[in-house]
Amino acid sequence: MTRILGVTLQVILAALLHQGLATVAPPTTAQTTAAPHKDPGRPEKGNYVVTSSNGTACLLASMGLQLNVTFNSVSQNKTVQEVLNLRPNVTKPSGSCDSDRASLRLSTDAEKTNLTFIFALNATSNKYHLSEVSLSADLPDMKERFLATNHSLDSLRGTFGFSYMCHEEQTVTVAQDFSINTFQLQVQPFGLSGDQFGAAEECLLDEDDMLIPIIVGAALAGLVLVVLLAYLIGRKRSHAGYQTI
To answer: I need a labelling partner for 128 at 20 to 30 A (CA). Which of 15, 102, 137, 152 fits?
Structure first.
């Protein structure tokens, strides 16, 4: 009898403990991550020209630009991430060109947003690259003006007299709170002949895109060849068998 009571008490205690655990909700923790942003879609491609003092084009750029900016929001009172498309129809290009340095400045919203690209040329190797990017922005929901600069970039590398081209989306990380997505990019900051791009040097992303169909095509051709050889060998053996009989 005592044994039965002991077992019964254990069952009751186990049931009560299970019910208590099931009804007590786990404590909630405050979310510290930035608020999710809305995707504005693919940006429109813009064509931008910088002219020298004599009026001739010295820098050409054709690209869609998307800005990823993290800032303190006034309306939400927290850090948010925004993805902003640069609209070519309201963007004003300017800049300058020297023998080893060229700049492109894109201004929007009555110069409330200024995005600057600086390219450097190595005269010894005749190679150029994107060396600096800076952004100054004053959006309505920002607590203070946003500033980001990087003077030690090594991106968009090309050769003097040639343009750099990358149709695929690529990201240039400028700072922890700012990066740029480029789409259908073609740029030439040095060695222009007239107002046309020079021959294009394609980025690795575009080359990989071209390489994949070639590999797939070669694999399919190899498979067809193997099947054809197997068929011919099988047919030959079958024909030899008939002659023996």
So the answer is: 137
Give 243: exposed, middle or buried? Use CB within 10 Å, 0-12, 13-18, 19+: exposed
Provide the pLDDT for residue 208: 44
Q: Which residue has the tokens 């879609």?
A: 41
b or e along 96-126 (b: 16 or more beta carbons within 10 Å of the residue's beta carbon)?
Answer: bbeeebbbbbbbbeeeebbbbbbbbbeeeee
Phi, psi of 101 (to 5 degrees): -150, 135
204 or 185: which carries more pLDDT confidence? 185
Decide if 68 contacts 81 (C-beta within 8 A).
yes
- Write the pLDDT tens digit of every residue in 88-100: 999 999 999 999 9
CA dist., res. 106 & res. 189, Å (int):
15
Read off the pLDDT of residues 47-70 as tens digits, 9 standing for 90 and up: 999 999 899 999 999 999 999 999
31-69 in b/e burial notation, b at 16+ Cβ within 10 A?
A: eeebeeeeeeeebeebebebbeeeeebbbbbbbbbbbbb
Q: How many CA atoms lie within 13 A of 63 on its CB side?
A: 28
Only one residue has tokens 């390219």, namely 119
pTM: 0.71
Instruction: Judge whether 54 and 67 are in contact, CB under 8 Å.
Output: no
pLDDT band, residue 13 (cuts 50/70/90): very low
Pairwise CA distance, residues 161 & 174, whole Å: 26
Task: Give pLDDT, residue 109.
Answer: 85
